[in-house]
Design a protein that fits this description.
- This protein has 8 helices and 13 strands.
- By secondary structure, it is α+β, with helices and mostly antiparallel strands.
- It has one domain.
- A hairpin with a 2-residue loop joins strand 9 and strand 10.
- Helix 4 packs antiparallel against helix 5.
- The two termini are 19 Å apart.
């Protein structure tokens, strides 16, 4: 049984929320694109996601306009994405074709020079021909099986900047330890990027103007950078009342916080937002100060335990004290 009990009613909670000036910045986060290295580890950053290549490739092709039509100005975004993606395909195809030309030059050189032949150190000719064919088919929208190009290109999305403001105060009804938040005015802004990483061949040995040694490497390119202002977000949130030391705090938490936009909605912004909100509690009660008001002469007490039972319509703080 508790020694002290205090009740916080709705009007007190409203005054605490009304003490904040709106619009209120909930959090702001900036982080440059971190590369593809983290995708190969078990632990990823909260603001990045490995994008399913097949789904992304399907969205880039025939249904692209319908996928992006809800975002303005969609025509420019579509043009930029098309141009950047197909520029990368062309660049990669030219890179592989350059290697293929070198292979033919080495073969011709070896036929003409029996005494001083070059030893080819690079990809198999059939592989080069097949990959170039797949890239060409994809450029012409003739490919039906994405598995071939899926092995060549990997995609990754990341939020590089996000700022979230509350335009108006949240609406809620206190309910013991946990209550849902209605956020009537969310003002988000930010930048999201989609990057591609694909295979790439680098000439490492050359003789008589002929490259006969090629090394596999990779190339990373930004395909899309979208700056978002007042864009539609899918938001669900709640608050939890928890004691910490002698304080009783309210911690806000996002259950769902996604950009309602193809590909980018896969990035779990609720994890990013919650990592910031956990360090921004609102203190609603100090049990230590409350305990000092116990009217007993020549006695001092300290808080040994705080309990917050689940109940509707109010927050009750039960304080157990012990004598020093």
């Amino acid at each position: 049984m508790s020694d002290l009990k205090a009740t916080i009613n709705q009007s007190i909670a409203d005054k605490i929320v009304d003490s904040v000036t709106y619009p209120f910045t909930v959090f702001e986060h900036r982080k440059p694109f971190g590369g593809f290295g983290l995708l190969n580890t078990e632990v990823k950053s909260d603001d990045e996601v490995s994008i399913d290549s097949k789904k992304f490739l399907e969205q880039i092709t025939s249904p692209l306009k319908s996928s992006f039509k809800s975002f303005e100005p969609n025509e420019q975004i579509i043009e930029d994405l098309h141009f950047n993606f197909y520029s990368e395909l062309t660049s990669l195809k030219e890179n592989l074709s350059e290697c293929l030309i070198s292979f033919d030059k080495v073969e011709k050189h070896n036929i003409d020079n029996n005494d001083d032949k070059l030893i080819w150190d690079g990809p198999d000719k059939n592989y080069l021909l097949e990959t170039i064919k797949n890239l060409s088919n994809y450029e012409e929208m003739l490919i039906s099986d994405y598995s071939a190009i899926d092995k060549i290109i990997e995609f990754k999305g990341q939020i590089t900047w996000v700022r979230v403001k509350l335009g108006k105060r949240p609406i809620f009804k206190i309910n013991g330890k946990r209550f849902d938040l209605n956020l009537p005015s969310i003002l988000p802004s930010g930048t999201a990027e989609v990057w591609a990483k694909h295979i790439w061949l680098k000439c490492v040995r050359k003789k008589w103007g002929i490259c006969y040694g090629w090394k596999w490497t990779t190339k990373e390119t930004r395909l899309l950078s979208v700056s978002l202002v007042d864009v539609k977000f899918k938001v669900k949130a709640h608050a939890i009342v928890e004691p910490k030391g002698t304080l009783v705090n309210i911690y806000g938490s996002f259950d769902e916080f996604r950009i309602d936009y193809p590909i980018l909605k896969e990035i779990p912004l609720e994890k990013l937002g919650n990592s910031y909100l956990k360090d921004l509690p609102v203190a609603i009660f100090d049990a230590g100060v409350y305990a000092k008001t116990i009217p007993v002469l020549d006695r001092s007490f300290r808080v040994s335990n705080i309990n917050i039972p689940s109940e509707e319509g109010q927050i009750t703080v039960e304080v157990t004290v012990s004598q020093d």
